[in-house]
Amino acid sequence: MKKSSFIVVLLLVVLTGSNAVAQCDVKNKVLADGTMMYYFEPANFYVTKSKSLKINIVTDKEHYFVALQPSPFPAKSEGKKIKDDLIIHLADNKEYKLTHYDTQYRNNDSIMQVLYLIDDKDIGSFSKFEALVAEINMEGTEFVRSYNFKLHKDAIKEQLNCFLKKEEK
């Protein structure tokens, strides 16, 4: 009896440990300029019949970015006009302004991704608190889109912590 209990506990520890590793499944790609970028698969933060928002953390190991993939997104000619900063409200009841870095159209223009730079002084807050709301000025579609996060509110925090833990090693 004790032996079977020990085996069950051991299996739970192994499965929990492997699950934690799977959550930090970092991918990478080399950009055209030779820069290596590290990222996670985007997590759904908001989904309705008319619009959705996927978010993930991207880093070059020096800077951290929040990457947004809104849907629907404007045509390339309009989307390239998106230059405004992103406002994110975290669970600490503060709002954070992330500087617009780049707007990209990927996979034959079937995905639009907008990168926003997380200020170094805000990394601690983003690694501790879940995201609640994002406000984006979607030039060419409407003024400001607000997304009240319904899904994976802690994805930014978890992804950022994965990167920060890897840097410590």
Question: How do the helices and strands line up, and which of them pair or pack?
Answer:
Layout lengths: L1 H22 L3 E4 L5 E4 L3 E5 L4 E8 L4 E8 L4 H4 L6 E5 L4 E12 L4 E7 L5 H6 L2 E7 L6 E5 L6 H14 L1
Antiparallel strand pairs: 1-2, 2-4, 3-4, 4-5, 5-8, 6-7, 6-9, 7-8, 9-10
Question: What is the compact description of this entry?
Answer:
This protein is 27% helix and 38% strand.
Q: Tell me the number of helical segments per DSSP (H or I, 4 or more residues long).
A: 4
What characteristic shape results from the CA principal axes? globular
How many strands, which pairing sense, and closed or not: the largest β-sheet? 10 strands, antiparallel
Low-confidence stretches: 2-22
Radius of gyration: 18 Å
> Which sequence of SSEs, written as H and E, runs from N to C?
HEEEEEHEEEHEEH
Counted beta strands: 10
Could you tell me the mean pLDDT? 82
> Strand percentage, roughly?
35-45%
Q: Decide which structural class fits the backbone.
A: alpha+beta
Share of helix, binned: 25-40%
Separation, N- and C-terminal Cα atoms: 40 Å
